[in-house]
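debug: dumping io for the single-chain case to check the tokenizer round-trip. Nothing else runs in this session.
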Amino acid sequence: MLTDLPNILTMSRIAAIPVLVLLVAIGTPWANLVAAILFSAAAITDYLDGRLAREMLQLSDFGRMLDPIADKLLVGATLMALVGFGHLPAYGIYPAIVIMLREILVSGLREYLAEIRIGLPVTKLAKWKTGFQMAALGLLLLGGPGAHIIGLGWLHPGLIGATLLWVAAVFTLITGWDYLNAGLRHATGPRPAP
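debug: decoded output
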């Protein structure tokens, strides 16, 4: 179970976090480039682990538990590192706050609903939100100086990343509201029979 490829990919996202934070702290153009590559690889594992688990028939409770935790840890640590080391452009903290608050909200709702044996499935819009969020964070990590190393400075990846972060924040608000309404329906409605 722990040595199944999908679970190894999930755990690799968690293992990447301290290296990613260190690279953001270093803040040189090369460190930014490596941080963006590392984050992008970790984001790809988010897509691959579930797909491989289904294709290889290696679905497990451990994987179902760890996957959303790994996602939230990776995104949360990346957002905090970008904010903490001043890598977000002006007003970038606002979508970061929205994203972090939504992650806490959904985690709390899932915990409550699990106690009454109700699942909170991931919606298609939430998957789009994740895609925009991952693209935004990868571009924000690349930032200005890191982009010049590979000749992308003219594209302004930090500006594109900040724009995508705002788009992700809008999706975050919509999906967070949807999840909250679903949770409230179960919290205020009749309890299902055990």
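debug: round-trip ok. The first helix runs from residue 5 to 26.
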